[in-house]
């Protein structure tokens, strides 16, 4: 048993107070376990260490009694502890014997259990080894199964599944392989298998690259052919629409309605096209046996192998090289023969690229496709510019333009911008029309040179339909009886066919060329063809090949028919251009063949005038100083009237009445001028009033001829014919007037003598001699009357001379 330690304070004695104080401080420091250093330094510093030693000894003696008391107290506790230990020792002996007995019992019981435990531990170790062996066997079985499946897929060219098996082996089994030999074999074979698959896929992709070039050309031809068929259907629909509009324009009440039925072939083609698109989206096209599977397979395998970016680059570079190869134009084959394959190859290329862009899963980017297209457009524009600059045949330009426009329509459906191609076509529009005009000029010249100036004979209705109705040359809607003799020669339908062909070629070139409103361009070129080419060739024909009245009459009749044909040309161009006829008629200029028409009518009039001049030479037989006027007219006028009547009876079968009227006006005006010219000319030295009266009878006969034509002309036209004789009539009326001085009256002159020339009046009046001037003058009232008239004329002549002098 332990007791607590107590601090005992020193007992104070009766010593010196300072020593006591020091002793108390020292005791307190020692009891508290503090440092005695300050006391020691103080003692040595004062040079008095003895008091300190004395105090320390005193303190030690004071503590000895206390130590004894403590030892006494602790001894009692020690005795009591020894007693306790002795009692405890006896308990330990009894416990030891108990433990020994328990140990014997435990040994007897635990011996069999330890043997069982050892057997269990051994069995557990065996079980663990067997489990490890079974796990290794299972791993080997699964590994062999994967290897077998990989070999099967490889033999079946199912490379993606083979790679999946190889990846599974590498990921799940190569680290778990129980055999190091097996592990090394797998580590060597897996890269070899991947390399083998990569080579096989690369070979298939290379074969696909070779095959796709042929497929692209066929695909491009098919797509462009479908665009051409669609365009043809649109054209057929426009033709039906124009026919319906024409029918409704001719008869607004009798409208015909019909249901439009789709052609079964179109439906089949449309269904086939949809099916083809569906198959194409999945990688193939049934129509062309076109398959994208090798490409997508190669892309997928390379993506699985981790070579996706490299394959993308490889694909793009190879396709770019193929496109560059497609740009090569053979110098051995004319471009007109190879242009379809050239453009079809490019069209098919970009159709394939568009499909790959949309279904390839990022194999090619939109930017790359646009880059390829920009390159292709630049090259195609360059080729077109070069080839167009070399071509000298309009039909070749048209063929290439049509195919390029179909190419543009085809590729525009896939979203490719084709405006640069259309701009090239528009740029060469002027050259095309120049070549077209040149070719038409040659053909028109040949057609005109082959004309026999004979009226066409049509034996069958189809000939009438082909040569007359086709160009709207008919003057009546009634089909004539056959055989039918047309009023025109074969030149007219031949030229009409050439002009119509020109119009159709012009519209064909301008259509689908990027310019929507092109009718003004077509109209301008038609006017050039008519005014510069056809009009010029006709004028040349008239001036060089027309030598007789019948030929001139036929050409004039042809020109009248061509005037109707020109209206048809502009309407036909408007219909082909999709322009309403009312807009086409708006702003129409004068007859474009006006020069040829005027030349034809002038040639006919000139020949007729020459013929009439032959009859007018009979004026030499007129007795200018006769005693009596001829009651039936002079000989020349009778011959002229007989000829004119014969002319009218013949010409009315060929010439339109307005043309005949203009020709007759010209001829009658020439006769009037000739009569006045004879009276004024030097061939007549003198004449009397009887001769003037005879001329008056001649003019009356001519006027009677014009008055007998109302069955051909309207009254107004007949009056215009009669007015062509006005100059001769006014001169004779003035010479036979009782008051010729009325000529000086402005009002009467304007009304009755507006065409007379004062100098001619003076000349004729001076030639007019009074009968009394002859050697044996006549006597009587008539002579007196004539004398009076002569005096009036003399007075008029005098006044006219005075006026002219002033």
UniProtKB/TrEMBL annotation:
Stretches assigned to the Exocyst complex subunit EXOC6/Sec15 C-terminal domain: 420-767
Cell location: Cytoplasm, Cytosol
Cited Pfam families: EXOC6_Sec15_N, Sec15_C
GO CC, one annotated term: cytosol
Domain Exocyst complex component EXOC6/Sec15 N-terminal: 55-224
UniProt keyword list: Cytoplasm, Exocytosis, Transport
BP terms from Gene Ontology: acceptance of pollen; Golgi to plasma membrane transport; intracellular protein transport; pollen germination; pollen tube growth; vesicle tethering involved in exocytosis
Main location: cytoplasm
Entry similarity comment: Belongs to the SEC15 family.
Protein's job: Component of the exocyst complex involved in the docking of exocytic vesicles with fusion sites on the plasma membrane during regulated or polarized secretion. Involved in polarized cell growth and organ morphogenesis. During cytokinesis, involved in cell plate initiation, cell plate maturation and formation of new primary cell wall.
UniProt protein name: Exocyst complex component
Organism from which the protein derives: Protea cynaroides
